[in-house]
Hints:
Elements: E1 4-9, H1 13-16, H2 27-41, E2 46-51, E3 54-55, H3 60-71, E4 74-77, E5 84-85, E6 88-89, H4 90-102, E7 109-113, E8 119-120, H5 121-131, E9 137-140, H6 146-156, H7 164-171, H8 181-185, H9 193-210, H10 217-223, E10 230-232, E11 235-244, H11 248-256, H12 268-280, E12 301-302, E13 305-311, E14 315-320, E15 326-337, E16 340-351, H13 353-383
Parallel strand pairs: 1-2, 2-7, 3-6, 4-9
Antiparallel strand pairs: 5-8, 10-11, 11-16, 12-13, 13-14, 14-15, 15-16
Helix pairs in contact: 3-5, 5-9, 6-7, 11-13
Amino acid sequence: MARIVYLGGLANRDHAGAEAGAGGGSAHMRSRQRVGEVLRASGIPTVEFRASIVIGAGSLSFEMIRTLVQRLPVMVMPRWVSVPAQPIAIADVLDYLVAGGEMPLTGSRVFEIGGAAVTTYRGLMEEYARQCGLRRLLLPVPLLTPYLSSLWLGLVTPLFARVGRKLIESITMPSVVTDPAAATAFEVRPRDYRAAIRQALADEDARFVATRWADAASALTRRRRLWGGVRFGTRLVDSRAVTVAVTAERAFGPIERIGGRAGWYYGNWLWRLRGAVDRLLGGPGMKRGRRDDRELRPGDVLDCWRVVAYEPPHRLTLEAEMRLPGRAWLQFEVVPRGEGAEIRQTALYDPVGISGRAYWYLLYPAHEAIFRGMLLRIAQFAESATPPASTSGHPLPRAP
């Protein structure tokens, strides 16, 4: 049977003014609930889910939390951040939507859905900061209206300049499940907001590291700044490419032999200096080498890096294990281009707080020179009949 499955917003009825024509409350939330009423009145069986704050990449509320916590070491806390809510993970929302399309249905139903625990926006900010290793000072203020808050958000990040007021008007009302019907009608058992944030961060890491930056080159070109790379959400990206007149297999050869006895092809003394500093800070430094000069596999140690993806002859992704105010990856991709191949090298950095961003921008000139020189040397070795030499000056054997 045909049906409509609609995802609306949850706001406690006495605050939201959900009835048509009701005064007060949030116009945004009233409109979402009014849509549900129109759909149910259409005569088509409708399953309406009213969700509290959705935790996951792309959720406007979650993006606002992330932006504020990442950018501001000190935040003023207006009263609306203490309004109770029942955040729900985006994966649990999707499970409800799928189940709503499959459940036995003779008429229309409305279900309130939320996570396993009640908290506030302040609680979400504190938990996000805790999981990201950030220390944040939250200062309560007695007066900061939704309108003034939206202006403040617009100053912090232009993303919320237009929608901030409507979003905050919705936030000022409780969104806690009062009707437990969803718990008996469906087998979905939502996780709490702590697990939801943890899963959101893990999912973003996986998607970010798995991104094919060779495919994203056009977007990087359009968005590239003159200095400092490109910002993707909270991450910073520096990507560059060179074309070589050899096959993808030949171009990938120097990449899969990088590190260990072969070194890093450019500025090896700078790599050794960075390794010495890392060891002073309690990190592994650059002396771990690699398991095999010619062969790699996921999980292998590679000096101060670890192999997280290895797909010869197209992709190698390394994650830094040195001491950093953030997390870093180095990715190499090889894409066939006509009779040759393009080698793309991408440095990815996820800074932690102000110190993390300061680290990136202060060292960017050195990183830019090292990565540019490394890529050019990789291209030279790929087009040369001579394999890269070891740090002792003796050529390394080619991979079979």
